[in-house]
Amino acid sequence: MQEPGKTLDEMTLRERSDIMSLVAEALEETAGQAREIGDITYAANSTCLAKTIRGLVSDLSPLELKAATILLEHGISLVASFEDRARSESTLH
């Protein structure tokens, strides 16, 4: 049985940095895929969100944890929705 995940508050600075970089990388990767299929809006939104998350990594004060949490949740949701959409489109063809 898996342990429940940690919140950003409960993570070390290194763990926070790692998870934020991971989400930013996923956003950048799906942005590239979106550009290839012509989804310019998703690509732009994902790229902007990835850059915002990366900007917080270097200076993440305790006061910014709530904002960082919201940005990470949004980023994870965007990646998941893109992957779900890509998966459903590939099964239709």
In whole angstroms, the N-to-C terminal distance is 38 Å
- How many domains make up the coordinates? 1
User: Would you identify the regions where 5 or more consecutive residues have pLDDT less than 50?
Assistant: none
Proportion of residues in extended strands: under 5%
Number of helix segments?
Answer: 3
Helices and strands, in order, run as HHH
Count of beta strands: 0
Mean pLDDT: 88
SS content category: mainly alpha
Query: What share of the residues lie within helices?
Result: over 70%
Q: Shape, please?
A: elongated
Main beta sheet: strand number and arrangement?
none
Task: Tell me what you see in this structure.
Helix 1 (13-37) runs antiparallel to helix 2. The protein starts with 12 loop residues before the first helix and ends with a helix. With 93 residues, it is an all-alpha fold. It is elongated, with a radius of gyration of 15 Å. The mean pLDDT is 88. The chain has one domain (12-92). The protein has helices spanning 13-37, 40-57, 65-92.
